[in-house]
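Entry type: protein chain
Record version: 2
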Amino acid sequence: MNNDRAASLSSPKAGGRASSDPISEGAPEPVIFEYSQPGRAAFSLPPEPEGLPSLDEAIPPQHLAESPPPLPEVSERDLVAHFTRLAHRQYSVDAGAYPLGSCTMKYNPKVGERIALMDGFLGMHPACDPALAQGALEVMYLLERALCEVTGMARASLQPPAGAAGELTGLLVMTAYQKARGQERRIVLIPDSAHGTNPASVTLAGCEAVEIPSDEEGMVDISSLEKAVSDSVVGLMVTNPNTLGLFEKNIVRIAEIVHEAGGLLYYDGANLNAILGVCRPGDMGFDVVHINLHKTFATPHGGGGPGAGPVAVSEALVEFLPGPLVERDVERDHFYLENPSRSIGRVHSYFGNFGVLLRALVYILANGPAGLREVAETAVLNARYLQALVSDAFPPAYPGPCMHEFVTTASSIKKRTGVRAMDIAKRLLDKGFHAPTVYFPLIVEEALMIEPTETETPETLRALANALLEVAREAESDPELVKGAPHTTPVRRPDEARAGNPKTRRLSW
C-alpha cells in the first residue's frame, strides 16, 4: 500500500467514523450520518426494466427536487452494526417480561411473521382487482367471522388502524345510529377508571364526556349511573374486566339501565384477553366492541402504528359500519366487496393494515377454540399468582380477585420512605425487568398496574415478584438508591420537569 493511500485511511474525513470504534460506557450511539463516507452503499438497486418511462416522463419536473436528499452513505457492515447496537440498548417483548398493565404486551409468536412474509401476501397491491385478491379477501372474511364469534357480535369492520381509531369509529357508528332514529344525543358516559383515550375519542366524535364514579369495590357506581342516564346519552363506554382488573359483576344491570334510556353499550376491547373463549361482550349486553388485535391476538404493538383495532357491532348497527365489507357468494365460492347501506364511510385507506390482520388470523387458527380459552385462563392465573406473591409489600388497591391484571398501590411505602411508584418502576429496570404501568388508573394513589399475560412462565413470575420485593426492601433500607434509579441502563433518569423540552442536535452534510 502506498503512503498516500495509507494516509487517507488513517485520516478519515468528517463523518467517517468506523463501526468498530469503541463506544465508552454510557456514551450515546453515534447517529447514522457519523458513519457516512461518499461512495459507500449497503444496497445495489437492480437494473431498470426496459420500456419504463424515464423519471422526467413519469413525474413532472416541477415536482422533483433540484438535488438528491442528503442521505448517509454507509456500508452494509456499518449499517448492520449501528442498528444492532441500537437494538441491544432497547427492551422488547422478545427480550423479557413486559408487565405493562392495560396494554397486554405479550410475546408475538413468529409463525405469524413467517406467514405474513409469504410472497403471495407481501407482494399484493391493495388496489388490485378483487378477482385477483381472493385469498386476501378470504383472510379478511375469516378473521371477521372469528372476531364476531369471539365477541358475540353480528358483523365487524377491519379498517381502523389502532385501538384508539376503533374507539372513534365505534362512537361514530353509535352517533349515526342515534341520528337515524331522530335522536340528537351528544353525551357519552365514561367510568372514572377508563382508559385515557376514551374521553379523547368522545371529543373527536363531537360529543361530551361525562364521568361516572367507581364504588368502594372498584365497580361502576350503579346509583350514579342511574342519575346520569337521560335522552341525551349516546351510550356508556366501559370494559369488562374493567381497568382496575376487576370483573364488573353488575354488567347485566348496567346494560339494562343504558338500554332503557335508549343508549348503547360500548365495549373497550383493551381487556378482551381476560375473557377470550370464556364469555362474550355480546352476551353481556354490549352493542359495540373494538378489538385491539395487538393485545388479544398477539400482533405487533406498532409503537404508534401500524396496528389494528377492528370494530364489531350488533345487528342493529351493521348498516352504519365503515365500508367496504367482505361478502361471500357461497354458490360461486367468490368473495367481493360491498358497502353497508348507511355506512359512515371509510376510516382508513383501503381495507385496514392487512399484514396485522393476517397475523391475527394466524394466531386464532394456530390456537383454535380450546387454545384461545386457555389463553384467557392462563392470563388470569398468572396475574392472580403474581398478585399473591407481592401482596404483602404491594397490597391490592381494591378488594376482590383480579382478572388478567391487578392494580396495587405504593402509597404506604411512599409515606414511610418517600419512595414513589415512579421510583420503584425505575429501580425495577436495574433488576432486568421492564417497569409496569404507573399512576394509572388515576383514581388509585401511587398506582402500579401489573399484567404478566399468559406468555410468562411461573419461573419468570417468581423472578419478577422477587425483584419487586427486593425493591420494596431497598426502599426501606436505602431510599436514595431507589430514588436515583435507574443506575445501569444506557439512558439514566431524565429531569422530569424538563423532559418535555429535550435538547436536540442537527447534523448538516
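Comment: Residues 329 and 335 are 6 Å apart (CA to CA).
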